[in-house]
Amino acid sequence: MIQQVREKKPLIHCITNYVVANFQANGLLSLGASPVMGDEIEEVKELAAVADALSLNIGTLNQRSVESMIAAGQSANEKGVPVVLDPVGAGATAYRLSVIDKILKEVNVTALRCNAGELAAMMRKGWSAKGVDAGEGDADLTALAVDAARKYGFIVAVTGETDIVTDGDIIHQIHAGHPVMASVTGMGCLLSSVTGAFLSVEKSADAVAEAVQFYGEAGERAAAISEKPGSFQIAFINAISTINESKYQIGGRA
Amino acid sequence: MIQQVREKKPLIHCITNYVVANFQANGLLSLGASPVMGDEIEEVKELAAVADALSLNIGTLNQRSVESMIAAGQSANEKGVPVVLDPVGAGATAYRLSVIDKILKEVNVTALRCNAGELAAMMRKGWSAKGVDAGEGDADLTALAVDAARKYGFIVAVTGETDIVTDGDIIHQIHAGHPVMASVTGMGCLLSSVTGAFLSVEKSADAVAEAVQFYGEAGERAAAISEKPGSFQIAFINAISTINESKYQIGGRA
Amino acid sequence: MIQQVREKKPLIHCITNYVVANFQANGLLSLGASPVMGDEIEEVKELAAVADALSLNIGTLNQRSVESMIAAGQSANEKGVPVVLDPVGAGATAYRLSVIDKILKEVNVTALRCNAGELAAMMRKGWSAKGVDAGEGDADLTALAVDAARKYGFIVAVTGETDIVTDGDIIHQIHAGHPVMASVTGMGCLLSSVTGAFLSVEKSADAVAEAVQFYGEAGERAAAISEKPGSFQIAFINAISTINESKYQIGGRA
Known about the structure:
The structure is a homotrimer.
Chain A: H1 2-8, E1 11-15, H2 21-31, E2 34-36, H3 41-50, E3 53-57, H4 63-79, E4 83-86, H5 94-106, E5 111-115, H6 116-122, E6 128-130, E7 133-136, H7 141-152, E8 155-159, E9 163-166, E10 171-174, H8 187-199, H9 205-225, H10 229-242
């Protein structure tokens, strides 16, 4: 599917946080996608309507950007543009949870891309998250992901040591990636918008699983060059631009 | 002229977008310039008044920052500080076009640095741009750049495969650069503020052409080290810091 | 102390500028800390209350973020969470000085991390700063740092060719670092939040001096790999993740 993504050159409208915006834009360009990042209420409906996917990220949310996310999401919904939500730091504050609830109420989200701590927080399960990092807990993540997918009617991609992708019916477990990915900010955020690019080719759990698989393999390839976070970050952008096929079948190693 | 820029160490006030701000600041530091990036209305007049150039960029514009851009621009005008406008994604939304019109009405812009799609949008010519990327079209860019320069009384630098710099009278065509530059976000944005640094030495189309030429050569040198977008980005910042003279004459290869 | 920082994995709440946010987050992750970067008034009290340190940075301040900084600072004070203030570009505008005064009036700041020009501006001494860069002047920095520490009751870390750390009583002079550090944006900003991480282990001038010493050594190690600003930046993030002990005693070379 990566070939189809590169041929389509999808336009990805990102309303994202200012910590990762540069990395996210460069990752999308390396993928062959075109990022556009406006978050002003006066223009987001127009941007989302012509995009091939909309990527919403609450990492440095504020009242102004939340309003823009909802307007952009509704515009994307009207045009059938897939919407990916990244609920960064969901459990960190009550405000984040209330914003996520509001977005989910007003926008039809196609896919949720998050870490375990964020999923647990959204589903009100006990979890010891650390700010925006995943943290630790005992929840059965696969069951939780299936529950979330059924409750909200979207595809869920929870990434971590094992990645889980489900639409509530199909379940993919993906074993790709490398631990150093947790030492670079925005790795999850970029994956969320890469997921949008794959969804622009096909709106399915399989497409999301392919995005996650592709991304993990890019991480493995970059980690083979360097496991130090600075060098890894650069090698990872390079890897996204050069990997043209998956070594593995969807759902696990071949 | 690069030697004069490095000796002057110009202070460049940038009101820019949060996607490229880091890259833009690092590029200016590598050039030997000092970036300062405040966008709060309470302080932008003061910053612009003491700067050696003002660089305005609408990549992630919002109502607050547009107000600041105009205030800063007027302050720069009062002090004779050159102003460079980068109309990022001009054709992407009606809002962007209206903001550009407003800025051009209220501020005397010294130079416009843009891509072909943005110039075509500003001049209301047909062009198929892709978000903030250049896109494709049939307009005669040189004629369009000359028209724009005469209409608005500023220097125009349109960058792409061939770069065109004109003040409506002198026309420079520059053949420098490398295709990988289109795969790194903020390459155009940084050039706009580098253009400001050159304009702080001399307010002329020749100075803008030298900036564009210098920048393209830095791109060539970096691409000789790596054509992968992650590594290129780092090699490019290195190249800006080390190139001390142009291999070519202004206006074409020697 | 670096070992203790890595074991603690402190959560650092940063309200920072969008120019350096990515670099700051990656630097903190490399250190083994967890950055969280919300700046919305609705959530900053909650974030600061659970953090191990709060890092305030006025690089791209605006009226909204200043309000959030004060709310976060007061929340940190209530919980005994150390607060580091980075008065970026203090002397650049009257607005910045007024904001710094306001923050210092309403928040108990544990440590101030700044350059010479910023300290001089805060203490209303003559100094020729350049935007947000240090600039040049004749003030006796050690005396000025001691004065500031006594006046405001915080630890002062002024970094430059020689770094000075003082609580108004103990004085550390640190000779670490490399000139290329001045060519990368956010080097000071990241140090400020690294200082927060060290303060989360021990609230003392010694802890701040260890942070500054560690940071300078990381700079030396990275500069030994490359003195070009692009490559240095990556080598520096790598160095932060790998240095596990100081070669030197606090207060000077052994």
